[in-house]
Amino acid sequence: MKRPFLARLLALVVSFPAVSASADVIYNRDLDPDAKPVLQVGGGWGQLELGQTEGARRRLAALGSIMASGPGDESARLTYYTPPVRGFEVGASYTPMPRGTEALPDPREARHMVEAAIRKKTRIGKASVRLTAGTSRARVRADSRRVPRQSWMAGAQIGWEAVRLDSDLRQQVTADGAASRVWNTALAYGAGNVTLSLNLRRSWVEGEPVAGLYRADAAYQLTPRWQLVADTDIAAAGGSPEAVVTVGTRLLF
Length: 253
Description:
Layout: H1 5-14, E1 21-25, E2 38-43, E3 46-51, H2 56-61, E4 77-81, E5 88-95, E6 110-124, E7 127-140, E8 150-160, E9 163-173, E10 179-191, E11 194-205, E12 211-223, E13 226-237, E14 242-251
Antiparallel strand pairs: 1-2, 2-3, 3-4, 4-5, 5-6, 6-7, 7-8, 8-9, 9-10, 10-11, 11-12, 12-13, 13-14
């Protein structure tokens, strides 16, 4: 099959002797109509991505099941990642028009978002440790509540045998100056057919009472496709806490 002109041009540029790089055009309508358009160019100097990719903060700073907040993956952006140096990885992203959140997209609310993140991987004895930090700034409309004007987060993940602990603290400021802060902690244990997890969240919003969310999950794998599960959710915000307990089975398709 004849290659597109852009692919042939990139192959010619990156094969020049003075540049050590490789190019890979991931997106091809003929092969995968549902694929997102992404172009990756990488080498000893790092990796450059252009297209509908996750940003540097989401890629480097997301911890376990705790996802970093920010524009959804439908936003087109330019991202650069440095090669790992002594366990450190650094990334920066530029998004011309962030599309709000995945649930509430609106490209008219923000322009010119810049993100940066750093990640450090190391080992302490038998435990693996990952430290992360990220920040973002955006030019947002005065009444925007979907894309923060600025935000930051810092967190850590520790894994030891069957136990993993994730914890992070993040803050964001909206266009009108209202600040909110969230602290997340997740503890998970998995051995054999048993999986246990505990999630804690505390959030502070200016002018509102502190809210808390606590969740405990247990699952037992009866067969490769059949699980016995139990969930307990406790939400507390100002008044009396509300608890919901769910017991049932989960069939995986």
